[in-house]
User: Fold this.
Amino acid sequence: MWYFSSPFLVFGEDALDYLAQIKMTRVFIVTDKVIREVGFVEKVEKKLKDLPHEIFDEVEPDPSIETVQKGAILCQEFAPDFIIAIGGGSVMDTGKGIWFLYEKPDQPLDSINPFTYYENFPSKAKYIAIPTTSGTGADVTWAIVLTDTAQKRKITPASRQIVASISIIDPAFAQKMPPALTAGTGLDALTHAIEGYCAMWRNDFSDAFTIKAVELIFKYLSRAYQDGNDKEAKEKMHNAASMAGLAFGNSQATFAHSIGHSIGALFHKPHGNCVGMALPYVMEFTRNNGTNVKEKLADIGRRALLLTGSDDEVSEELILKVRALIKDIEAPATIPELGISQEDFEAQLPTLIKYTSEDSCISMTNPMPNDDQIEKTYQYMWEGQRIDF
Amino acid sequence: MKLNEDGNMVKFMSAKWAAQYCKVLNASQAYAKAGETWEGAFIFEAEYEDGTVVRLYMDLWHGKCRGTKEVGPDDTAPFIMSGPYENWKAVAEKELDPIRGLLSGKFKLQGDMAVVMRHTKAAVEMVNCIMGVPNTEL
Assistant:
């Protein structure tokens, strides 16, 4: 027995109009200042018409526990029946955290876990996620990624009950993404899809979303990066991001995300760039060492990209295509290209290895790397050398 | 799992097996590393089809096993994981991931769930160590 969790999805052109169809009384909006400045929050407000609403726009990149707690206090005071989060992954995750604390104010955030059934959740409000990047998939997943600022590390509380009630995947919000953000978030989506297919908890349902997501990303990410006005490409990438979120959210993320979380916690580099950089190296490591990973990668190559050949040939071609895509969209392909100096990298390497080793995604990796292999992977990512161990 | 040819078998989920498992855990560098922040004894509880229940107390602390014993129905520990013997067997044979088993109701867990979720790597290494107990009869 296993499960598949998903919000109710509303997608395509004018998907935001769906807000007008929902009977709401009081709305608490979670966002960040950039999203507010570009006018996206105003678009949501127009759909709400005269409904009482309050805006919390203090979400920062790599949101902290404190930010969620602050938002939750304001939410508690406002007492909404709907919480709407509009923004990137940080906003999506903050929204989930605020929703949880609004419903269960006595529960510590870091206690959220998938083994506990939270009675009467939700009883006060429903949660609507509106992603503006393509993307983290955080609009459809049941985990929250937060930063413990005291310990400088990420925590990932998770429960299937905190999947959004509704996700509104309106491509109009993806149109304004600048190229670098299009590239980074697109690679995040690709990493979700591929890692989800190779993770320990993969299943038929998550696999289905991986294949379609990979197909769309390879077809449209370069286009979306090259031309921000390519509406079709932006819409397809926006859909692909949520699909990839459904894939890995119902399977798991693995080694690339452990690396991404660790680099993100210590160096505050964009998440998508970090995991995307790590992806081909992790594909190589798991192909070389995992059980049937080569076959799974070949499967992705054949089904999503119609590649032909033996498992060796197709898995290799897929990895090369990932490397080529990263180059094509001018995303970082090595740790130095993330903007990390050698001095800082060497100083933090022991901590990077420790954080990676302790990250929850690492145990979902096939095979689970030991500390020596983690260290070697980091060294290879520094050098830009293909994994040959 | 192959049977040992000389017939000296140790029944899986018995007190004798648990004592040997403890030694295997203590010899495992991978477990020592993965479990270095773990604090709290476990009771592993196996329910057999005939209604028998075996409860094994394992004193796990900072990546080491400090001792084991078979305990009774009223004994307690910070963490109690219980399930049918067949599910424990599936874990030993790596046909069932214990965390996934917990999530799908094949095992029940009493204790701080969030702590368990932060130690999934230690759980993986504990499963790896099961195979290290010689002459185990499943």
Q: What stands out?
A: The longest helix of chain B spans residues 15-27.
